């Protein structure tokens, strides 16, 4: 049954500002809507805007409660690394920002696809068994799975994520404006086989990137057709973005590689658009060859840090590029023995070096870690004073 949402009232409450300079909260919007057919009133709260370079979406809370996707618990078991999990979710929001204006739309985790439905789609296809008949991963010829058979038919789809974007106004009420779907593709297939003696053997096979991309595009079309049959998704625009994971042990996350959209009520996805995103690790031979200027700047910065301690320190940088332009730079320092006074001096030292060390107009994040956990943080946004924090 469709829900008709009508705008009843708007309540504004002034929120306290956060403690980080440059981050200011706007007034909180409380939108009350009426679910007329069931005669019950639901309060939708739109979280306040935080003015920051990241331009995060405001969230839709139902009766003051964050709506958590049922599928959230399954992602950690299907993707290969923590950094892939984080980038998959945050990157999907960035994809959405190119479609849905952050000033006009509000974010909510996916509520149409249950965890059970997503898991059924991630299984191998087998029309003979009900629990596998909706699987979107390649089938196996028989139950006696051998190393070659499994390796030649790898699991390609590792995870599916749904994000919903709502819009509303005093005149039109609040409604679902669009859905953004993320499909994660394995770069390496990890699997195990059992021998006649009951022993297990672990294997891995690389997956061809172009073949995985084409497989993901076909799977997205099938998902679109299934979603159009679901109540509430018959007419809304749906965007699909394909994410290419990195293998286990990688120090950088994967990247989104392609996206396509079906407009209101459309049953076919349009042309697929390539996404040019890349990561570089500093120091590395690849960074030195492809990004020599930033690589040189990073080496000098690392030398400054080592001079501060008068010995070598673990310093690693990760540069994220979009369309060959640097988007952000993250630097991690790993310390051994230290005192709090030393950490304070180090954060002050770093904050005074970032401007002169890196002539880049992008956010720079420096994370200071030790065996005891997080020790300090330095954030430098373009044309702003650096923010520093020492963990107690």
UniProtKB/TrEMBL annotation:
Coiled coil: none
Pfam families referenced in this protein's UniProt entry, alphabetically: CamS
Descriptive protein name: Protein involved in sex pheromone biosynthesis
Native source species: Salipaludibacillus aurantiacus
Lineage, highest ranks first: Bacteria, Bacillati, Bacillota, Bacilli, Bacillales
